[in-house]
Design brief:
- The protein is of the alpha/beta class.
- The chain contains 14 helices and nine strands.
Length: about 350
């Protein structure tokens, strides 16, 4: 039986000549689920890439949410099943991408918009380098958030070049691929999107950064308060870790703790509405922006940052220009240049 629809702001789509295929590399995430719902309703096709652990684990909240979406919406709504595909893929494993790229949905060309995977880690630089365990957290984050992008692009670019089309919504390589009519956009949502829609792992807090010694509001405390207001479940040691359980339910623990924010379906959709609309509006656009800031708060934050950078530039412009060597102020002599 199909779930009753929850009110959701209508999405705008970039003009296009026919149905497209979207490759979502973090297919089980709330962002991908909500985006997939809009894309299938619009008539596009979607390849949802999920980790092998998410395909076999029936106990995690993330896997349960994805299974419910797939079984109760995709499989029962007319026309959706033929335009959706699940592929097991780990962004950290370079060899897992070619299979997803090489298995398009038959009636459509592929080489269209892509999405990325994210992993949220909380801790200061010192805290994340305090032990082999916390260092491994950072390495795993880079393997997922950075090298996962590299692996995906390496696998997708040959097909995009051949079709002379495509639009990765990820990191900047626009100059290299512009001759092949491939567009690149960095989509920058609010920080809450990346944190509240992904598994969160927190490194043990060092005493120097505790509330009684450091009065500055730290990101750890902000997220901890937000999770408590959202009634998220208690935090526990990540799967396969020997670290202990944190009975306080907070991120300020002596152990590595992990959680997955439990949001109601309505709250999750409202949280993601701006981001989903941004992705559908610019995905596959003929002239998309190189960077797209999502939401009023994000725009205001970027404007404030640009203002600060501009003011600092003016304050130190003389020091910046003092290193320039031109004909009027005197250029390096041949003997001086040889010694440089």
């Amino acid at each position: 039986m199909t779930k009753p629809a929850i009110p959701f702001p209508p999405c705008k789509f970039a003009a296009h000549s026919g149905p497209r295929v979207w490759l979502l590399t973090s297919g089980a995430s709330p962002v991908s689920i909500n985006l997939c719902r809009q894309l299938l309703a619009h008539g596009d096709s979607v390849v949802l890439c999920i980790k092998p652990s998410e395909a076999t684990d029936d106990s995690s909240a993330r896997a349960v949410d994805f299974s419910a979406f797939w079984d109760e919406e995709v499989l029962v709504r007319q026309g959706w099943r033929s335009r959706a595909r699940i592929e097991e893929m780990d962004a950290r494993c370079e060899g897992s991408f070619p299979l997803a790229i090489a298995c398009p949905i038959p009636q459509y060309s592929h080489g269209d918009p892509l999405m990325d995977a994210q992993l949220a880690i909380i801790g200061t630089v010192e805290e994340l380098g305090a032990s082999l365990r916390t260092t491994a957290l950072i390495r795993d984050q880079f393997e997922t958030n950075y090298f996962g992008h590299v692996n995906m692009i390496k696998a997708a670019l040959p097909s995009m070049r051949e079709n002379r089309s495509g639009h990765p919504d990820i990191w900047s390589l626009g100059y290299e691929v512009a001759p092949f009519n491939i567009k690149v956009t960095i989509v920058q949502p609010n920080v809450e999107i990346n944190v509240l829609t992904n598994p969160i792992t927190a490194a043990p807090q060092q005493p120097q950064y505790s509330r009684d010694k450091n009065p500055a509001p730290l990101f750890r405390e902000i997220i901890e308060g937000l999770l408590r207001r959202l009634n998220s479940p208690p935090l526990a040691a990540p799967s396969g870790s020997s670290e202990g359980h944190d009975d306080s339910g907070g991120l300020s623990s002596d152990d590595v703790v992990a959680t997955y924010p439990q949001l109601s379906e309505y709250t999750r959709r409202q949280l993601l509405a701006e981001t989903i609309n941004a992705l559908t509006a610019i995905g596959g656009h003929d002239n998309p922006p190189a960077r797209h800031i999502v939401g009023h708060e994000g725009v205001a934050s970027v404007k404030e940052k640009l203002k600060t950078v501009s003011e600092e530039l003016e304050d130190f412009v003389e020091a910046s220009c003092a290193v320039d060597i031109d004909g009027e102020s005197g250029s390096l002599q041949q003997g001086e240049a040889d010694n440089v």
